[in-house]
Amino acid sequence: MKLILSLLLIYISINMAVAQGCSDAGICYFSAHKSDIVEEKVIKNSIDFGYVFGKGPKSVTYNNAYLGYNHDFSEQFNLSLRTTYNQAHGDFGTIGQLGDVFLVGNYNFLKTEKSSWESSFGTKIPLTSANSKINGFALPMEYQPSLGTYDALFGITYHYAYWDFNSSLQLPVIQSNRNSYFDEFSASNDYPSTNLFKRRSDLLLRGSYNFITANQKWSFKPNLIGIYHLGNDSFEDVFGQRKTIADSKGFTVNANLISEYSITNQNSIQWSLAIPLVVRKVKPDGLTRALITQVSYQYKF
Amino acid sequence: MKNLILFLLLIVSISSCREEGIYTSEMNSDFSLSSSLKIKEGTFQPTVGIVVMGNVEIYIKEGKSYLKLSNFSVSKGPDLKVYLSKANTPTEFVNLGPLQNDKIYELPIPIGGYSYVLIHCQQYNHLFATAKLN
Description:
The structure holds 2 protein chains of 2 kinds.
Chain A: H1 11-20, E1 37-38, E2 41-42, E3 45-55, E4 61-72, E5 77-90, E6 93-109, E7 115-126, E8 133-134, E9 137-138, E10 149-160, E11 163-175, E12 202-209, E13 211-212, E14 218-229, E15 234-236, E16 242-244, E17 250-262, E18 267-278, E19 291-300
Chain B: H1 2-14, E1 18-20, E2 37-46, E3 52-61, E4 64-74, E5 80-85, E6 93-98, E7 104-106, E8 116-121, E9 126-132
Antiparallel strand pairs in B: 2-3, 2-9, 3-4, 4-7, 5-6, 5-8, 8-9
């Protein structure tokens, strides 16, 4: 790995996805991106795809996949595009659909030998309005492939040696969630009503340390991720009145370990495992997982 | 690599799936309105561009009120709900749940003051049909 000129760790896709993704523990969905030079050839593109298995707190299991593309426009600026496919399986049945598209830009600045700053900005575009049904029965948010919100994403990361510290904000800009799940009309009592659900913003704080083996083939990156949901979410009740969902704001803390093996300078595989340490009391958005693990592959060209 | 991506896209597209579970299987209720008293009824009228036919009937049985659709059909919509409403537009209403032709809806409130039944597409906020209760 002597050929690596710089480490432009693109945390936006990681960090933002946690706040919005299928899971509060979903930070492990995304892999770090590096801008490399291999045998004098500047690598500006990469494609990555992965499989994610998750276990929800209410016996729902998730089989998700993603496909991403990254392009370095310069040493400072990078754009990444990613789409997700999410499948949920549980007592309501099995449903799988494309979830969201993410477009994220990263700008690296104030770079010194040991440290650098990175700002990130982007958007999340939902591919569904979170109102998928089975046999005409409305499904709770736990089964929806997307939150159904158009979000703005902002982040700032400080890299120092092997340490990374990040703060990100996920702001729902257009609330296009049209979910129609009512606890009253459901045979299940496990999920709160989320009819015409409106979601509040998330603030994320993350710290990680990257251990790299002597031969530079392996890296292990433990992370601690705190996500604060900034307000109580709300839904529209059977009388058409908007009601806040008590205790839906609050703090989630996830522990995550990302392991990466570089097969060659252009190919790598990654595995990660994440578990929540602290969860919000009420999680109407269906994001929380009891466990999440991911395997992914990245090809740079 | 190109073939691999095409293969992945193919896998994703064919694995878009929907299978029913225990909470989403078709349920046949054995509840019947026999020995109940019909207190109100109305005939559905369509809004522009919609085709609707049939009636709505309100019954009382053992102190509870029920709503039943009769000989009912309506143009397809993605998210049709049955509303009990105070007006012929969805301003003050009770959402009784998703439209199911053969379902008997138990009313969660006394019928007094609610003189319309609406068929409304919640997802696109589009009114499909109205019936005035007489």
